[in-house]
Amino acid sequence: MTVLVINSGSSSIKYQLVDPSSGESIAVGLVERIGESTSHLEHEYDGETYELHERIADHGEGLRLVIDMFNEHGPNLEEAGVQAVGHRVVQGGKYFDKAVIIDDDVQARIEELAPLAPLHNPANLKGIEVARELFDVPNVAVFDTAFFQALPRESATYALDREVAEKYQIRRYGAHGTSHMFVSQKVSELEGRDDLKQIVMHLGNGASVSAVKEGKAVDTSMGLTPLEGLMMGTRTGDIDPAAVFHLARVGGMSIDEIDTLFNKKSGLKGLAGDNDMRAVNQLAADGDDNALEALEVYVHRLLHYIGAYSAVMGGLDVLTFTAGVGENDNLTRAAVIKRLEPFGIKLDEEKNAQRSKEPRVISTEDSTVKVMIVPTNEELSIAQQAVALL
Ligand code: ADP
Fold it and tell me: Residues lining ligand 1, CB < 6 A?
C-alpha cells in the first residue's frame, strides 16, 4: 500500500511515492520550469535517475509525463498499490483544522483562500485539478496551517482593529504545520509521554518555531504569512511594520518592491550575502564580520522565541531541532544551547557533533531540558494523514 504525495508549485511539481507504514520513500521526482522552454523532469527509482529535457506546457502535461515515467521506469503504480494521492496545500484558512478528502466543495474553498496565499494556493490547485482527473483514487489535501488552526485566541489574534481584521481575515495562521506536528508527535512517541511542553524549531530555508503543549500547538512564529518570526534564508522575519511606511514614504519604494525586499533579499542573504547556512558559516570562519553579525542575529531571534514560549507554556520539557539547518548544523545548535546554560540546559558536545539521520538526544543526562534532533519528513506525514482518512 502506497500514497503518491504531490507538492505542486507555480512552475514545479515535486512528487514522492511513499509507503506510509514503513516510511520508505519508494520513488521521488520533480518537474521544473513548467511552461518554459527549459522544462525538466527528474525521476529517481531504485538507485537510478531518469531525466527528460523538453518543453512541458502545463501542470497537466507535467503530471502525465510523471505517470509515463512510472510506467516506463517503474515502479508500476498499479502494482505499487497506490491508495491515495496526498496534496500539500499551503493555506487552509478558517476552514481546515485537519486533512480532508478533496471534493468540489473542498476545491472551491482552497480557491476562495487564494488571496491569503496568492503564490501557493492557486499552484496547489493546479496539481489537485490534474490529479483528480488522472487518478482513480481519493485525493487528500493536507494543509500547512491545520496544526495551528486551533491556536488559543491570545496567540492567534493580532491587536488590530477588529472590523478590519475580520473583513480581511487577518490572524496568525502559521506555516510548516505538517512538520511541527510530525516532529512533536515523534518526540512524544519517543518519550512515551503526551503531556510534554515542547518547542520545535524548524530551521530550513524558511524557518519557524512552535510551542506545543500536551500535543496541541499553542503558539507559532509565522503569522498571516510565512514572513513573520525568525530570521530566514531570504526573509526578514520580525520587523517593525513601520519600516514599510518608511521605505514607501522616504525610500519611494512600491509595495511590490518592499514585498520582494522582505521576502527574497533579506535574512541571511541580506545580511551576509548568501542564503545558505553552510556558506555563511564558512564566511564567518574566515572572519567576515557581516556573516558573524548575521549568525548573531539568527541565534538572538531563536533565543527570543525559546524564552517567550517557555514563559507562555509555563515551562519546557523538550527542545527539538529539525529541517536543513536544525538537522545538520552543529554550530548553530551549539550557539543556541550554550546560551541556555544558565537555565541548566546542557549540550553533550560529542553527541551534537555526530551526524545521523535518526532522531536523537543531544543534551547531557543532567540537562534540565532534553534537547533533541528529529529529522522532519513532511511527505511521510502527508501520506500517513491521507491513509488515516481512508
Ligand atoms: P527548505 O525545505 O526550506 O528549502 P531545508 O530544510 O532543505 O530547506 O534546509 C535548507 C537549508 O539547510 C540550506 O539552505 C542550508 O542553509 C541548510 N543546510 C543544509 N545542510 C547543512 C549543513 N551541513 N550545515 C549547515 N546548514 C546546512
Answer: 204-206, 233, 276-278, 323-325, 328-329
